[in-house]
Amino acid sequence: MTMGDDPTAHGGAGHEPGEPVSCTVRGGVADVRLDRPGKRNALDPAMFTGLVRVGETLRADSSVRAVVLSGTGRSFCAGLDVAAFDEMTTGEHTLPEAAGPAGGPAQALGQRAAHVWTELPVPVIAALHGHAYGGGLQIALGADIRLAAPGTLLSVMEIAWGLVPDMTGTQVLPELVGRDVAMELTLTGRVVDAAEADRLGLVTSTEDDPLTAALALAEDVAGKNPDAVRHAKRLVNLAGRTRLAEGFAAEQTAIRRLIGSPNQVEAVRAKLSERAPAFTDPA
Predict the structure, then answer these.
(1) Which of 8, 42, 211, 226 has the fewest CB atoms found within 10 Å of its own CB?
(2) How far apart, in Å, are the Cα atoms of 128 and each of 60, 117, 213, 214?
(3) What are the pLDDT digits (tens) for 192-223?
(4) Count of CB atoms within 10 A of residue 219's CB?
């Protein structure tokens, strides 16, 4: 990946040759890519650690206003590296250790690699193609929006290996597709194509070029009041996870903080003047 000639572009965490996860930030949009194309971006300890490291770095960067998560090569992510399953036949495989203390609900390294994208204060859009199997699907579930190419294949694959999803999938999937559908997908491990995934709600939509579509959507979001965008993500993610009264109260707290704030005033002035707004980064 290159940063081009845009003076607003800068390299993010993981933007080093040979790193399994790369990141470039341009115009407030972070372009994060799983980068083990020869392995279909299969998950190994370095990939887990790279995902967490890049995610945590972006969370602390107030200039980032939206994130696009994709994979290089033929697939988004084909799941756990098959070498790990070879180790399981001899009883040698162990779960990867956590990369430092975690501040949120996800403590295991694999869970953090998926949930860190949910914890980002800005929207994360996953662009899926090829395969999103097992842990790869669970990483995609950590995004706020999932766009899939028509030929994408998706599976809660763990049951085929005698396992269960352990990267937040059992808790997140039912929110998207319902408990019964989540149960069926988890118990069978069957492969669904993008069209069925769209019908089930597993992906947001299908796109001929999901990466281009995701970047365009991210650029659109990056042009909105960044304070409002952050509040919107937090509020929508509260739905169904907190009591209704608490959700309503959170709405009112957010609107009181937004009305009359510098970026909200700028949004109104720009709208009335029919010009592009010039927002400042959140404090």
Answers:
(1) 8
(2) 26, 15, 11, 10
(3) 999 999 999 999 999 999 999 999 999 999 99
(4) 16
Tell me how far apart the alpha carbons of residues 113 and 106 are, in angstroms, rounded to a whole number: 9
Which CATH number does 226-273 carry? 1.10.12
What is 10-222's CATH number? 3.90.226.10
Both tokens of 220, joined, read: 């659109």
Q: What is the DSSP letter of 42?
A: -
Burial of residue 184, with CB atoms counted within 10 A of its CB: 0-12 exposed, 13-18 middle, 19 or more buried = middle
Instruction: Let me know: does 77 contact 41? Beta carbons within 8 Å.
Output: yes
CB 38 within 8 A of CB 91: no
Phi, psi torsion values for 80, nearest 5 degrees: -65, 140
* 130 neighbors 152 (Cβ within 8 angstroms): yes
Nearest to 157 by CA among 192, 128, 129: 192
Tokens of 65: 């206003």
Taking the C-alpha atoms of residue 126 and residue 34, their distance in angstroms, rounded to an integer, is: 11
Look at residues 171, 63, 66 and name the one whose alpha carbon lies nearest to residue 120.
66
Question: 41, 103 in Cβ contact below 8 A?
Answer: no
Angstrom distance (rounded) from CA 164 to CA 170? 8
Q: Hey, where are the domains in the chain?
A: 10-222, 226-273
Q: What is the mean pLDDT of residues 116-131?
A: 99
| Coil, strand or helix at 153 | strand
**What pTM was computed for the model?**
0.90
